[in-house]
Design brief:
alpha+beta, seven-stranded antiparallel β-sheet, 2 domains, globular, Alpha-D-Glucose-1,6-Bisphosphate, Chain A, domain 4, about 250 residues, two-stranded antiparallel sheet
């Protein structure tokens, strides 16, 4: 928490975060245009933000792209502010498996989030790949069903919330799947990659979201949803207690 507030205390770093909030995935050269300072100075500020977990990077070809990582901010907000309620509605099921396979490997993601979870690689893999675990940590879905490679997350009244079909996996380290929202305003189906990397007693979990058809806004929409999803997953794996950071938990209270 100290690193977070230190990173936010500098106006130049807040300018960089504002820029990424407006347009995620910018290169160093693009970010430098927002500040009257040298390339080295901008790199130094980006290093502080990355250390605090407020940004994460993805190298594509010769360029490193920077993404706003809203999770630390969301965790700080959730510590003091009651989670906002959202009201999803059902949407028709769309199967994107054939459409999303074979995407350009040089494509940069539209949204990136990272968090560190004190757990084993096997436990995190099972949490992500076994539909029965959804009930322990998802912020809205109360349960899930599976039909082959396709999993559908359901609300307590059995209304479908979203579906996902596994496209590719590297056991224990990578899952690529579709992301098919069924709620009103959820946007067109897209694609998500989960990356698991052991770091000592922790597993670094990176979520890369591709093919979004609307801008990502920190603290809203898909960014807010991923933050709540990750907070529940992390809490459940680290404490053994079910955690639901969202309207499902509020509805059941």
């Amino acid at each position: 928490m100290d690193a977070l507030f230190k990173a936010l205390s500098d106006p130049a770093r807040r300018t960089l975060l504002d820029s990424l909030r407006t347009r995620d995935g910018q290169s160093l050269q693009q970010l430098q245009a927002h500040l009257d300072m040298t390339r080295f100075g901008v790199m130094k500020h980006l290093g502080v933000l990355e250390t605090a977990g407020l940004i994460t990077t993805k190298k594509v070809g010769r360029f490193k792209h920077h993404y706003l990582n809203a999770l630390p901010l969301q965790q700080a907000i959730d510590r003091w502010i009651e989670p906002l309620l959202v009201k999803p509605a059902a949407r028709a099921v769309l199967d994107l498996k054939s459409q999303l396979e074979g995407k350009d490997p040089m494509q940069k993601p539209d949204f990136v989030m990272q968090t560190y979870i004190k757990t084993s690689q096997d436990r995190l893999w099972d949490a992500l790949s076994d539909e029965k675990n959804v009930a322990h940590y998802h912020f809205m879905a109360s349960h899930a069903t599976r039909d082959g490679a396709r999993t559908t997350l359901l609300l307590p009244d059995d209304t479908p919330l979203m579906s996902q079909s596994v496209l590719k996996t590297d056991p224990k380290s990578r899952i690529e799947s579709t992301f098919e929202p069924h709620w009103e305003g959820g946007g067109a189906p897209s694609r998500v990659i989960y990356l698991l990397e052991p770091e000592g007693d922790f597993i670094k979990l990176t979520v890369e979201h591709y093919d979004l058809t609307f801008p990502v806004v920190a603290g809203e929409g898909v960014a807010d949803g991923w933050a709540r999803w990750a907070a529940g997953l992390k809490t459940w794996l680290e404490t053994g207690q079910d955690a639901h950071f969202g309207s499902r938990g509020a509805a059941e209270a």
